[in-house]
Design goal:
With 527 residues, the protein is an alpha+beta fold. It contains twelve helices and 20 strands. Helix 3 packs antiparallel against helix 4 (207-221).
């Protein structure tokens, strides 16, 4: 009895393009493959025995690699070659533009059957393409071919052709079912990771935390090589967060919403590109950013169901077809949650600003001043240098209120507060501490530097051009300066010294800057 040979070499191969999840875990992959392999093997063996065939082989082609390989086969020929070969090779090549190829009385000079070392012993041959329905995850990127041959050179009968057709349909169903199982299992695994990511996202508070949590969530779902968060600013969008190429260069940049894919996503409230493929020829952020190295692109709007679009998530990958339909659906769900978290984070930061900023003037309030004062004083104690405190009062402010009303007095406060930003650095702290009272804390500044800041402020206030109706209103300020550790070695004493210097400025005519001199126990006046 002839020896029967069964394929075992290709059980690790997947007979359709269905990649693992990017973290390498598809829990039931091997089980699905074994079931498919066993089902195909049984059908091929039944077909070979039923029709007295020499070989029955299921060939699988990946059109992206240009190769065919025997996925499963049953044969009694020792001449069978279990190895891949190029598409278009030999007898199989004649099938490329046809659904079926049937040959009887095979001539000696006919093209070679590529899964044999030679055509010796082949009398008739038939090859049939399998009709493979696309699943939600699959595209027409592969071909399956059922090939059979035998020693007899007789024509294939209608009954034999019918059995081959039924077998091809059954194999198609087996492969389709395996595809579906594989896709469902991967989708279930992806949803589980997405759920875990959403749970982590829900713990984020500030915007930076939301961006970081979103990036982690995205990378747990898809293998993106580039990721960014863009937020709408009027007619522009700002790139607030980037992971990937040129992150340092792109972060913080602002681009117009016109003539870019991000702008279209925000304008039309829909994810693009439709198939997530990208040729590198369309502007993503601007005409200067074409993403030429990437072959997959997905831009998802950040929006709540009935709310405005607040921005977009931009993902790109260097491999093609990375963002599948199921991943896209999960990312759109994630984007909705991110939009909610961004709104909450903005509200959270606004509440924080309200808690630290004076509502009238927009500079730090007394609470923020006290906290900042304590922190800056602790730093000053740990390192060389000094901390200067400038206390400032608007002269005759009660008279301004009584003469022109509180709304005008509020405007004076706002105009004076604006000048603090012009005389202080980003490391300094300017605050409204009450009524018409203000304070400035200067780190790492000597006496001369502190005095120059105070005088600059005094002169700017004096130059303010304020009027109400037909009256021109003159506004001036008095300032007192004290230094740590030269004048005082504690917070309370430093405040007391600056307050006494301010008192000297006011009692000696106002519109003056006075510094505290602890050694002489008196202030020095400049005006």
């Amino acid at each position: 009895m002839p020896q029967m040979i069964f394929s075992a070499a290709n059980t690790v191969e997947l007979p359709f393009h269905c990649e693992d999840s990017h973290d390498g875990t598809v829990p039931n992959r091997q089980k699905i493959l074994r079931q498919l392999q066993t089902g195909c093997q049984r059908q091929l063996e039944i077909l070979r025995r039923s029709l007295t065939l020499t070989t029955v082989v299921l060939l699988w082609s990946d059109n992206r690699t240009g190769q065919l390989f025997p996925y499963a086969f049953s044969t009694i020929s020792a001449d069978f070659k279990d190895a891949p070969f190029l598409l278009g090779t030999g007898m199989i090549g004649a099938l490329q533009s046809r659904e079926e190829l049937s040959v009887a009385s095979l001539p000696h000079n006919s093209p070679k059957i590529p899964y044999y070392r030679s055509n010796i012993g082949v009398g008739s041959f038939i090859a049939v393409k399998l009709n493979l329905p696309e699943t939600s995850e699959q595209h027409a990127d592969s071909t399956a071919i059922l090939c059979v041959d035998r020693l007899s050179d007789l024509d294939w009968t209608e009954n034999e052709r019918f059995l081959l057709k039924i077998s091809a349909e059954q194999l198609s169903s087996e492969i389709y079912a395996a595809r579906q199982l594989f896709a469902y299992d991967r989708e279930r695994h992806t949803y589980r990771r997405a759920f875990d990511s959403l749970r982590r996202l829900n713990t984020a508070l500030g915007l930076d935390s939301v961006y970081t949590a979103t990036a982690e969530a995205v990378r747990s779902i898809v293998p993106a090589d580039f990721f960014s968060v863009c937020l709408v600013e009027s007619d522009n969008h700002r790139i607030c967060y980037v992971q990937g190429d040129h992150a340092d260069k792109l972060t913080g940049q602002v681009f117009s919403l016109e003539q870019s894919l991000v702008g279209q996503v925000i304008k039309y409230r829909r994810t693009i590109p439709e198939n997530a493929n990208y040729r590198g020829t369309t502007a993503v952020f601007s005409e200067e950013h074409l993403f030429a190295a990437y072959r997959s692109l997905l831009i998802v709007p950040l929006k709540q169901e009935n709310g405005p679009v607040v921005g977009a998530l931009c993902l790109a990958a260097k491999k093609p077809e990375v963002f599948t339909r199921s991943c896209r659906e999960i990312l759109e769900l994630l984007a909705t949650q991110v939009a909610i978290k961004i709104e909450l984070a903005n509200s959270h930061e606004q509440i924080n600003r309200m808690a630290t900023l004076d509502s009238l003037t927009g500079i730090a309030n007394r609470r923020a001043y006290q906290r900042g004062f304590e922190a800056m004083l602790e730093r000053a104690k740990r390192r060389p240098g000094s901390l200067h405190l400038i206390l400032c009062d608007i002269d005759h402010f009660k008279k301004i209120n009584d003469s022109f009303g509180h709304p005008y007095g509020d405007e004076v406060l706002r105009q004076v507060a604006k000048l603090f930003a012009r005389v202080t650095r980003s490391v300094d702290l300017a605050a409204r501490t009450g009524g018409e009272e203000f304070a400035i804390l200067l780190e790492d500044t000597d006496n001369t530097g502190a005095w120059k800041v105070a005088e600059r402020l005094r002169e700017l206030v004096e130059q303010l051009n304020l009027s109400t109706g037909k009256y021109q209103v003159s506004v001036t300020v008095s300032l007192g300066i004290a230094a740590f550790p030269l004048d005082a070695n504690s917070l309370d004493k430093l405040v007391s010294c600056a307050d006494q210097a301010l008192y000297m400025a006011k009692s000696s005519g106002r519109n003056k800057t006075v510094t505290w001199d602890s050694r002489a126990d008196k202030g020095k006046s400049y005006s």
